[in-house]
User: What shape does this take?
Amino acid sequence: MSAFQSPGIPSLDLMLSDPGSSPTVLRIAIGSRLRKLREAAGFSPLEASAHIRCHDSKISRMECGKVPLKVRDVQDLLELYGVDPMERAASADLVELSNRSGWWERYNNVVPEWFDKLIGLQEGASIIWTYEVLLVPGLLQTPEYAFAVTQKGFPLADRLDIEARVNLRVDRQKILSRADGPRLWALIDASVLDREIGGPEVMYGQISHMLDLMDHPRITLQIVPADFVVAIGMPVTLIRFPLDLPDIVYLENSFGANYLDRAKETTHFRALLDPLASKAHSPEQTRSRLVAALERYRTTRPTPPYSSSPDVSA
Assistant: This one.
């Protein structure tokens, strides 16, 4: 059997064989396997915590992928659950991979901890399904549009800070060009096209970029008609993963974010997103709406207000 494998419990070799696997998602995957192995072996969280001499709440946090894992803790738990010595030894590689730094940590000076998790989740996603009410989704933004949005969102930030946040957004978008990158399904409220961010030049460039992205094989972009009554009322992102991991819903607010992973919660938001996808304009209709918006912003365009600075990590 492979690392972390037990009868009826799939292995994690897929992620172990991929050096680019997101440490955030790998930590969640290891925790999920630990929970399934514990339940299959018939141990309670309290019994498991006694075996590694910790509070039972730590077992819950480990199984939810909310804390860094220790090789010794994982191996001791695998021993308790009856996993053989060779498999326990192989698990060390997985734990070490789950604790490595993500590329985004070089932006720690501008990335809050609650947003750091979203980047890690999206890095390991198979599908990202997002609904945006006010703005073009971050993964689809041009640098100029992102700069204008960041200026408004962080009015006290200096230019270097704003440019660092823009560079982070551009780096996040690289997952869309990876051969194994996720599929992105973006539902955008029609009002976003009318909300002028950064001026006509910026909007023209942003909408042109969206039109180009509609030809991307893994991107589906749909405009939600303005007259369609939306029950959500806030931006929502649903993230799906490879392997047997639960979906996660990301809800952002002005001071942080909520990450929902209970089946009842994720099912609720999927039931809200499904009607949006069916009622939204088709890709062909969406393209027509984008072309019409592009014509509205067509103008003698001045030099864009944003120009890239050297990489902040250099």
Notes: The first strand starts at residue 127 and ends at 132. The two ends are 44 Å apart (CA to CA).
